[in-house]
């Protein structure tokens, strides 16, 4: 499974949406992506990719697309 597939899977499982919907998600687009859901998402991503995000990145992580940008900052190749 590629890193992008793993990343997408975390979104689909966290917010109970399909992959196509996940790719367009922004913070609070779905009820599950509230402040608690946000921290669960971050924890899942940190566990899966063995990273520890800085507070500023956690705050800035406000969409699927922005998340990809942030993940690459931590050396996660989303094309691998």
Automatic annotation (TrEMBL):
SUPFAM superfamilies: ACP-like. This is Acyl carrier protein. It comes from the Bacteria. InterPro entries: ACP-like_sf (IPR036736).
């Amino acid at each position: 499974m590629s890193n992008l597939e793993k990343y997408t899977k975390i979104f689909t499982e966290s917010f109970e949406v399909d992959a196509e919907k996940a790719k367009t998600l922004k913070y609070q687009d779905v009820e599950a992506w509230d402040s608690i859901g946000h921290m669960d998402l971050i924890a899942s991503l940190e566990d899966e990719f063995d990273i520890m995000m800085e507070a500023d990145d956690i705050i800035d992580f406000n969409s699927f697309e922005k998340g990809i940008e942030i993940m690459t900052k931590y050396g996660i190749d989303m094309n691998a």
